[in-house]
Structure formats: structure tokens, C-alpha cells
Design a protein that fits this description.
The protein contains two helices and four strands. It is an alpha+beta fold. The chain has a four-stranded antiparallel beta sheet. Strand 2 (29-35) and strand 3 (40-45) form a beta hairpin. Bound molecules: copper (II) ion (CU). Copper (II) ion (CU) is lined by residues 11-12, 14-15. Residues 11-12, 14-15 line the site of copper (II) ion.
């Protein structure tokens, strides 16, 4: 299962790492790709979108399920 999230508030590679690490820490996540320029995260695995968004928000960034899903 692939979940696409839009991430707001990322401004540099440090932010990308923080978001990536937060998403990888969610149970069920198998792979994470974060695109800084697009403000998007692609998450593979069985984690719920709610859990993924909560993890990102805990790090201080905004998260929403990307349109089209
Ligand atoms: Cu940053």
C-alpha cells in the first residue's frame, strides 16, 4: 500500500531527514521517500494515514493526505 502525503514546513535537508525518520518510526512503514521541492512524502507499508500524519505533526511539520487518494 502506498500513501502519498503533502508535507508543509520543510525548508532544508534537515527537515527531510526529520520527516523521514518520523515516518519510518511508525509501525508498519516499510519505505519512505520525501521530496523536499514537491513537499511530498511517499510511504510504503500498512500504516494508517492518520498515524503517519500524527508522526509528522509531532515533529512540527504539517501533513495531509495528498489529493487524488
Ligand atoms: Cu530544515
Amino acid at each position: 500500500m502506498t500513501t502519498e502525503l503533502t508535507i508543509s514546513g520543510m525548508s532544508c535537508g534537515h527537515c527531510v531527514k526529520a520527516v523521514e525518520t518520523a515516518l519510518r518510526g511508525v509501525p508498519g512503514v516499510q519505505d519512505v521517500r520525501v521530496d523536499l521541492a514537491a513537499g511530498r512524502a511517499t510511504v510504503e507499508g500498512q500504516a494508517s494515514p492518520e498515524a503517519l500524519m500524527a508522526a509528522v505533526k509531532e515533529e512540527g511539520y504539517g501533513a495531509a493526505v495528498a489529493a487524488g487518494q
